[in-house]
Amino acid sequence: MVARWAHNPKVVSSSLASATSKKRIKQLVLFFYLPLPPNKKTDMSQIELILSRHGETEENKLHIMQGQLPGHLSELGKQQAKALAETLDKEELDVIVCSDLARSYDTAMAVARQKGLQPVATPLLREMDWGIYTGKVADEMDFTTLPESVETIEALYKRAGDFVDFLKKEFPGKRILAIGHGGFNRAIVVQLEKLPPEKILSLPIMKNTACMRFTLP
Hints:
Layout: H1 22-27, E1 31-32, E2 47-53, H2 58-61, H3 75-87, E3 95-98, H4 102-115, E4 120-121, H5 153-170, E5 175-180, H6 182-192, E6 211-216
Parallel strand pairs: 1-6, 2-5, 3-4, 3-5
Antiparallel strand pairs: 2-6
């Protein structure tokens, strides 16, 4: 039997939706550091990756299952993207990677403009495909039995592995910011931590514009 996605509709919309002031938004840009051990020589092919998520969208606010729809950043989402750029102002980046969905690209552009870079968009980083559930309101849906058109956990896990391989092949030794999506970022974390696919289901969904740092050998 093929394992499929377990979804909690309550996490579809960002918990940052109630934040209104710029100061509050900047405080809520989470940044987790996983530093290299001190005095350890860095391999020239080693990648330093910062994994983030796009800003809040209008669809997030309405609990709409965006999946691989473009998505539209809300005013808060645009402010979150700007705050992310400010947070990363002194961070040295060589490459910014995003999905080819508008909500990811627009968030990446906020950082790219400040860094003088052009985002590299790839469909490998897209959100999971919700199939016939795409565009529907999460609160009105039954997630206990998902239709065949919804991307499986196995497919999501494989695509996350393909994305990691893409980074290693195209950008060895680079410092990369990747702007992904809440659901798919969980699959990337599971791949990087070498966990089994089913662990995707138990990880919390990253908040909008939160970040995690990884080192890819």
